[in-house]
TrEMBL record:
<protein>
    <submittedName>
        <fullName>Uncharacterized protein</fullName>
    </submittedName>
</protein>
<feature type="transmembrane region" description="Helical">
    <location>
        <begin position="422"/>
        <end position="444"/>
    </location>
</feature>
<keyword id="KW-0812">Transmembrane</keyword>
<feature type="transmembrane region" description="Helical">
    <location>
        <begin position="338"/>
        <end position="363"/>
    </location>
</feature>
<feature type="transmembrane region" description="Helical">
    <location>
        <begin position="500"/>
        <end position="525"/>
    </location>
</feature>
<dbReference type="Pfam" id="PF05024">
    <property type="entry name" value="Gpi1"/>
</dbReference>
<feature type="transmembrane region" description="Helical">
    <location>
        <begin position="537"/>
        <end position="559"/>
    </location>
</feature>
<feature type="transmembrane region" description="Helical">
    <location>
        <begin position="456"/>
        <end position="479"/>
    </location>
</feature>
<feature type="transmembrane region" description="Helical">
    <location>
        <begin position="238"/>
        <end position="261"/>
    </location>
</feature>
<feature type="region of interest" description="Disordered">
    <location>
        <begin position="677"/>
        <end position="699"/>
    </location>
</feature>
<dbReference type="InterPro" id="IPR007720">
    <property type="entry name" value="PigQ/GPI1"/>
</dbReference>
<feature type="transmembrane region" description="Helical">
    <location>
        <begin position="267"/>
        <end position="288"/>
    </location>
</feature>
<feature type="compositionally biased region" description="Basic and acidic residues">
    <location>
        <begin position="680"/>
        <end position="690"/>
    </location>
</feature>
<keyword id="KW-0472">Membrane</keyword>
<keyword id="KW-1133">Transmembrane helix</keyword>
Length: 699
């Protein structure tokens, strides 16, 4: 059986011209007896092992493997892959006058698999690679030890990749940040489709990509363990002193602001525990329901952000993909709150500087809405609206009741007009203090309370209209000799008496003739109430958008799209036949059995901005479906009220947290200052924590 081997090679290794004898480290991912993946992480100088005064190579490999993710350790172990030399005579003991074929056989038999200091045993696989300036990428594989056999005929696919680095790029096979659950299709699929979904294709590729994402971390850990090199601390300099002082001042300012919010939140919480304020709290929660919900969410974000900032330590994660996810999770704790506060300050300051103009506009709008829409509309319905002849008496009663309610509510609002100035100031201060979402929720509650008379009139006319529709439907069933069976939810035959038919006829006629008058009033107040609810729903939609938008991911995507991969592809660079064969083997090979060498580059696809936003907005609209909208539309025709809220998803509130104020300030300051140190230490580990060879490769 013809064997196939894929060698995943770092980009800097394929272009190096180092003449020293080196060891190759990485992972063997074996799928079958004829397929093998060799993931090369890095190359280390063999001479450094003799100067190592610490643990043996076997112990270093074992400790390095323990630092890798558990999912990778279960499938492949970090090990010594083989040797990398500058010529065919790797060990320097070959005959001087040997031919190329003798040199190949001699080097294959004397590659030194069992002659590595500090290594008790080797893997069942071993590769020997040499530097060749005439070959593609300046490097080629000389031979492979495959389960004890020296393989001379093998299809080789060399895949060159750029080593993933945190904050720069990594590789991923799928839509790695998708969080929307898969919905079950109502249609029955064929069996072959279910079998296809149950299969897990490219399992070996998942292991390979995972090992590639861990290559940089494995190199760092190995160098630290093998050379006993600790992470070097940054040298003292003026720039380092200024940077440290700036981060310390930023941490102090943010910690003081958070502590101020923390004290205010706990002050309100302490007031609510007193019995004298309990009834005020209960009443305010019913009247200002949306404000309390968003205030609770904002309070939990303020209380818990330093804890989330300390929990997500991406520098301790060896896989770059997992570190990126942890970093985005860490950024998602502060970015919505920061954007919300910025918007709240912009809106709040605008309202504070233009309070008089906003007050005059509100007075003008309220006057036009009351006189030109509500009162004029009721008077118009009491006459002959659009040429329809209505019942004069019923229209007069409904119109006079509506006008009286509107007048009573307008009179009450005249006495409350003096508080509108302070109400606008309260909205502005809430936006500056707690963000735009809390002030917007407060505006929703104020609009709901200010249009309470419209809601009451709509509820009353809906009650009359729905009962009238239900009575007409019941009488129509009486004429058809049908009766509703509520137990079985069906229509059954039923024999009515003559008296029941007479009474039904006497009731059906006036109800049917009065239906147009009731319908006109119902349509008018439904349109009015729906318009008010639409404004509240629009503000609710804006609040949910502010909560759900991944601001950190958007900003990172605009700067570096490589941090959002979604699949890989291969850019073929070279294709060649007749490799890994001696001169005697080449004469016996048929054209279709000739070994093949293919060199390609590993590339990534990247997510678009829509693919990043879609999972978050799908979760936000998870409570809304087309069936619910259809049900609401049908309910309006039968006399039901339209919902006043969209029911969008909001961040879940967390349990209340009690902590002394000084301890909370220390927690905030430590989380900010330590996060800056984590990021700088992570960069230093890539730049200063490695020997010179590693530094040149990373550059």
């Amino acid at each position: 059986m013809k064997r196939q081997c894929r060698i995943w090679l770092p980009n800097m290794l394929s272009s190096t011209d180092d003449s020293t004898h080196s060891l190759i480290f990485g992972w063997f991912v074996s799928h079958s007896s004829s397929c093998l993946d060799v993931v090369v992480a890095f190359v280390a100088d063999e001479s450094s092992l003799s100067s190592n005064s610490g643990s043996s190579l076997q112990d270093v490999l074992h400790e390095t493997n323990e630092k890798m993710p558990l999912s990778l350790r279960d499938k492949a172990a970090f090990t010594l892959l083989g040797r990398y030399d500058s010529c065919l005579s790797a060990n320097g003991n070959a005959p001087k006058n040997a031919t190329d074929e003798d040199m190949w056989r001699y080097s294959s038999l004397s590659c030194g698999c069992h002659k590595v200091d500090g290594l008790d045993s080797v893997s069942s696989h071993w590769i020997h690679m040499v530097h060749d300036s005439s070959s593609e990428r300046g490097i080629r594989m000389h031979h492979i030890h495959w389960n004890g056999d020296i393989v001379s005929q093998c299809d080789v696919h060399v895949i060159v990749y750029d080593p993933p680095v945190f904050g720069s790029h990594h590789f991923s096979l799928s839509f790695w940040n998708a969080s929307s659950p898969q919905t079950k299709s109502p249609l029955k699929k064929p069996n072959w489709v279910d079998d296809l979904h149950r299969r897990q294709p490219l399992i070996e590729m998942e292991t390979v990509i995972l090992s590639i994402n861990c290559a940089t971390s494995a190199e760092i850990v190995y160098k630290k363990l093998s050379t006993q090199l600790e992470t070097s601390s940054p040298k003292f300099s003026l720039s380092y002193l200024i940077s440290t002082l700036a981060w310390w001042l930023l941490a102090a300012v943010l910690s003081s602001l958070s502590s101020l919010y923390y004290s205010l939140i706990h002050f309100f919480y302490l007031l609510s525990s007193f019995p004298i304020f309990s009834w005020v709290l209960i009443a305010s929660r019913k009247v200002f329901k949306n404000t309390w919900i968003n205030f609770r969410i904002r309070s939990c974000q303020i209380l818990y952000w330093p804890i989330f900032l300390q929990e997500n330590n991406m520098t301790s994660i060896s896989c770059v993909e997992q570190a990126e996810k942890a970093a985005l999770q860490r950024h998602s704790t502060w970015s919505p709150m920061a954007v919300d506060l910025i918007l709240g300050n912009l809106i709040g300051l605008s309202l504070l500087f233009n309070t008089g103009s906003v007050c005059s506009w509100l007075f003008h709008f309220a006057k036009e809405f009351t006189n030109d829409i509500l009162r004029s509309g009721c008077v118009w319905l009491m006459g002959v609206p659009a040429g329809f002849k209505l019942n004069t008496e019923l229209a007069g009663v409904l119109g006079m009741v509506s006008l009286n309610v509107i007048q009573i509510w307008s009179t009450l609002w005249i006495f409350m007009a003096s508080f509108i100035f302070y109400l606008i100031r309260a909205v502005a201060l809430m936006g500056i203090t707690f963000g735009a979402t809390v002030s917007a929720a407060f505006v929703i509650d104020v609009i709901t309370f200010a249009t309470l008379h419209v809601t009451a009139l709509h509820w009353a006319i809906t009650l009359v209209y729905s009962h009238q529709i239900q009575a007409l439907a019941a009488l129509w069933r009486l004429f058809r000799e049908r009766k509703m069976n509520p137990l079985r939810q069906r229509m059954d035959s039923y024999g009515y008496t003559v008296k029941q038919h007479v009474v039904g006829s006497l009731l059906f006629t006036p109800l049917l003739l009065l239906l147009p008058t009731t319908s006109v009033f119902f349509i008018f107040f439904t349109i009015t109430s729906t318009s008010v609810n639409s404004i509240c729903m629009l503000i609710e939609f804006a609040v949910s958008i502010i909560h759900a938008t991944p601001y950190a991911e958007i900003m990172i995507w605009l700067v570096r799209r490589q941090r959002f991969p979604c699949g890989v592809w291969f850019e073929i660079e070279h294709y060649k036949k007749n490799i890994l064969t001696s001169s005697s083997d080449r004469s016996n090979n048929s054209p279709e059995k000739k070994p093949v060498l293919m060199v390609s580059n590993l590339r990534s696809n990247f997510l678009s901005i829509g693919q990043i936003l879609l999972p978050h907005y799908t979760t936000m609209f998870s409570g809304i479906s087309a069936s619910s909208l259809t049900t609401s539309a049908r309910g309006v025709l039968s006399g039901k009220r339209m919902p006043s809220k969209l029911g969008l998803d909001l961040p879940p509130p967390r349990p209340w947290m009690h902590m002394p104020l000084r301890q909370y300030w220390t927690l905030c300051h430590g989380s900010i200052f330590s996060s800056s140190r984590k990021g700088s230490n992570h960069d230093l580990s890539l730049e200063k924590g490695l020997p010179e060879a590693s530094q040149s490769s990373s550059s």
